[in-house]
Amino acid sequence: MDIGGGLAYIPSAWAPKPQAALNTQPSQPVSITPNATADESANPSTSSPTSQNPLAASDTATDLREDAKERQQRQAYEQVIAQLQARDREVRAHEQAHLSAAGPYATGGIQYDYQTGPDGKQYAVGGSVGIDVSPIPGDPEATIQKMQVVQRAALAPAEPSGQDIKVAAQAAQQAAEARIELQAERAEEMNELNQDDTDEPTQPDNLAEINDNIERNNFDIRIQLQNALNLEG
């Protein structure tokens, strides 16, 4: 779902965050050569003045040069159109994958960047999808579920961009922080249930497992961020 503008880093504090834009397909205009123009010589549906004028046919060498030039222009025209069509399909499929996976957390429709082809038509050469990557204040469990959706949306295209991987890594970090908060809440609940007469808190039996999970989450986040930086480099 390279998916342009960057996504600002999201701090770890659990205050409400503004919505963020996920820009995933930067504009990649197709180079249009001077030969690939939508004039009469480039348009395969029209004939050159030479072929319509019987008097010009007497000069065979001139005819051959004109025919070769016309074929070259027509080939350049068709090549550019094919490249623009392929880019348009790629961008639309990429962004649609993001939008479909984002579900209720998409902040709007797809925004496309267009390039005008030599045929006068508009082709999508870049695009972006807005995604809400803010945590849900006071509800770490819901935040974890939301960030899982955000991760899937960021990595939904067949070939995620470096920016996509960055957003997925940021969502993973948000989820890791939510898990820490959730585990702390559960540990506190266990302490309250297991307090003895001295009111001394007890440590949860799975404290080592909690610490291991936190360390694994942090390691995964560092790996994903490094992969994103490598792709952009």
Question: What would your notes on this structure say?
Answer:
This protein is mainly α. It contains 5 helices and 3 strands, in the order βααββααα. A 3-stranded antiparallel sheet has the order 1-3-2. 30% of the residues are buried.
SSE order and pairing:
Elements lengths: L19 E6 L23 H4 L7 H43 L3 E11 L5 E10 L8 H15 L7 H33 L12 H26 L1
Antiparallel strand pairs: 1-3, 2-3
Helix pairs in contact: 2-3, 3-4, 4-5
TL;DR of this structure?
Residues 190-202 have a biased composition (Acidic residues). The chain has 233 residues and is mainly alpha-helical.
Structural features:
mainly alpha, three-stranded antiparallel β-sheet, disordered N terminus, rod-shaped, 233 residues, 3 strands, single chain
Which sequence of SSEs, written as H and E, runs from N to C? EHHEEHHH
Give the overall pLDDT as a whole number.
Answer: 76
Helix content: 40-55%
Domains (count): 1
| Spatial order of the strands forming the largest sheet | 1-3-2
What oligomeric state best describes the polypeptide chains here?
single chain
Question: With helices defined by DSSP (H or I, 4 residues minimum), what is the helix count?
Answer: 5
How is the main sheet built?
A: 3 strands, antiparallel
Give Rg in angstroms. Answer: 28 Å
- Helix-and-strand structural type: mainly alpha
The end-to-end distance, rounded to whole angstroms, is 19 Å
Strand content: 5-15%
- Categorize the overall geometry: rod-shaped
